[in-house]
Amino acid sequence: MTSSSYTPAVQGQGFKATVQRLGGYLAAMVMPNIGAFIAWGLITALFIPTGWIPNKTLAELVGPMISILLPVLIGYTGGRLVHGQRGAVVGAVATMGLVVGADVPMILGAMIIGPLTAYLLKLFDGLVEDKIRPGFEMLVDNFSAGIIGAAMAIGGVYGIGPVVEWLTKQAGSGVDWLVDKDLLPLTSVLVEPAKVLFLNNAINHGVFGPLGIAEAADKGKSILFMIESNPGPGLGLLLAFMVFGPRALRPSTPAAIIVQFLGGIHEIYFPYVLMKPKLILAVIAGGAAGVGTFMITGAGLVATPSPGSIFAYLAVTPKGDYFGVILGIVIAAAVSFAVASALLGFGRGEPPADAVGPDEERVVRPDGQPVVDPDNAPSKPAKQEV
Q1: Residue 219: beta bridge partners?
Q2: Phi, psi (5° rounding) for residue 363?
Q3: Cis amide prior to 64 (ω within 30 degrees)
């Protein structure tokens, strides 16, 4: 499995391409394990003391799953991406060092130590390739994996773990400061433009996901899960295109709305923004309005809604937060629709439907201007010979 399974193929070698590759790699580590994240979220929503069906015995699953199972799965998957099954094994072993040596969920740390340990094993395997005497291959393979995995686990306890824990706590303090100062909606100014450059996976799974998991483990829910994944801004933008956008594009928007809002595939609306870059203001406004609504209502989710569809949102919404969550999505969609409609001029620049004859085909560019089809263009009268 490669990162391209979850993100578009990246071309070029520039800074943006590098960041996109990093985002794709993070997605490739997280997305195969989303089912485990959802399972943890459902168990949390159902069985914790404030859940739908409080159960003290079943609530004991919550802690070990978030602190041990999920980081180990991430480390295992990251190692597998680098060096196959051998990399997966040492990645999981090394991740256990982080789990033991930290007090916060080590999702971010697992994304680092799993691939790193697998890469070290890959280097070793390259050095000894074709140099092992026949009959000793299994012995060398097993002991090399065991030694490197154990060494990295110890390094995780005393080195990588404390550093990642400190970084996580500092980032969490920064988020708390934004919340205390009522500035969290301003994150949309950075998040929404980055999303349309296909950096959504890097933002969601690499930044807000780990921070949200740490906050949810402490408080039972987190608003950070909803900053990037809110389907409202994209829905509002697509609705504006359907009503006021270029006529050639309007028939494509209903299907895009289904894929984006119900299916949770936000990438479907990115080309619409890239086609008319000024519409980035619409999704920024919608995202900020949604985050502000979540803050005012105190709403949060218990796990990452992935994919970011309305169904995934409702599945990981804790008891008592449905009103705030749904209201935030609706307001985000409404604000995005209003701003996008204004930026599109409420369709005033679009020709009326009856401007095109029944036997004529009108081709329209993305900017709304007609394109002359040379095959269907009216023929010019021939010059009269004198």
Answers
A1: none
A2: -100, 130
A3: no
Per-residue buried b or exposed e for 144-183, using 16+ beta carbons within 10 Å of the residue's own CB: bbeebbebbbebbbeebbeebbeebeebbeebeebeeeee
Residue-wise DSSP of 17-42:
HHHHHHHHHHHHHHGGGHHHHHHHHH
pLDDT in tens, the chain (386 residues): 444 444 455 555 666 666 667 666 776 787 788 778 778 777 877 787 767 788 888 888 888 888 899 889 999 999 999 999 999 999 999 999 988 877 777 877 888 899 999 999 999 988 988 787 877 888 888 899 999 999 999 999 988 888 888 877 776 677 667 767 778 888 888 888 877 766 666 677 667 877 888 888 778 888 888 888 899 999 999 999 999 888 887 888 888 888 888 887 787 888 788 778 889 999 999 999 999 999 999 999 988 887 778 888 888 888 888 999 999 999 999 999 999 999 988 877 666 554 444 433 444 444 445 444 444 444 444 444 44
Distance between CA 324 and CA 336 in Å, rounded? 18
**CA angle, residues 282, 8, 257, in degrees to nearest 5:** 45
User: Could you tell me the pTM of the whole model?
Assistant: 0.63
Size of the chain, expressed as the number of residues it contains:
386
Could you tell me the maximum CA-CA distance found in the chain, to the nearest angstrom?
A: 102
**Cβ 28 vs Cβ 81: under 8 Å:** yes
* 341: nearest Cα among 242, 218, 223, 208: 242
